[in-house]
Design brief:
The protein is α+β, with helices and mostly antiparallel strands and 139 residues long. It has 2 domains: 1-38, N-terminal domain of TfIIb, CATH 2.20.25; 40-138, K homology (KH) domain (GMP Synthetase, Chain A, domain 3), CATH 3.30.300.20. It is built from 3 helices and 6 strands, in the order βββαββααβ. It has helices at residues 40-62, 102-116, 118-125, and strands at residues 3-9, 12-17, 22-25, 66-78, 86-98, 129-138. The strands form 2 sheets. The chain has a 3-stranded antiparallel β-sheet with strand order 1-2-3, with no helix packed on it. It has a 3-stranded mixed β-sheet with strand order 4-5-6, with helices on one face. This is OsmC family protein. It holds the Pfam family OsmC.
């Protein structure tokens, strides 16, 4: 896997993934930015949510669950001192569908948390406390 991050100006950078997709990263005005893109740590948090959501949906699709919507709501806390690493991350999955089995959703979230989500497992090994839960909304 490869990526490139190119400085634009001030504290704005353009990231390009190896697959050819781009994203703007920028800081707030009080740090020399123009607030034109996500902050790098926000992107890291979004990556955790995307990685875990990919796992959960893949597992639920293989289990033939009738999912019509899935979102991952993330909350995080960071250390007060530099480096301001993530100290706590919570992933709350909201899964919507018809006749979803609680055991299948629970299993999907647990497998992502303990076996498949490289991003959350990596941050957990680095010292962040990572927790997961879920709710099911019946259509």
């Amino acid at each position: 896997m490869k990526a490139t991050v190119k400085w634009v100006d001030g504290v704005m950078f353009l990231g390009e993934s190896g697959s050819g997709h781009s994203v703007v990263m920028d800081g707030p005005a009080d740090h020399g930015g123009r607030n034109m893109g996500v902050r790098p740590m926000e992107m890291l948090l979004l990556g955790v949510g995307g990685c875990a959501s990919f796992d959960v949906m893949s597992i639920l699709n293989k289990a033939r669950q009738g999912v019509s919507d899935c979102r991952c709501e993330l909350t995080a806390e960071r250390a007060d001192e530099v480096p301001a690493v993530f100290t706590k991350i919570h992933l709350h999955f909201v899964v919507t569908g018809k006749s979803l089995k609680d055991a299948q959703v629970k299993r999907a979230v647990e497998l992502s948390a303990t076996k498949y989500c490289s991003a959350s497992l990596m941050l957990g090994k680095a010292g962040a406390s990572i927790s997961h839960d879920y709710e099911i909304i019946e259509e």
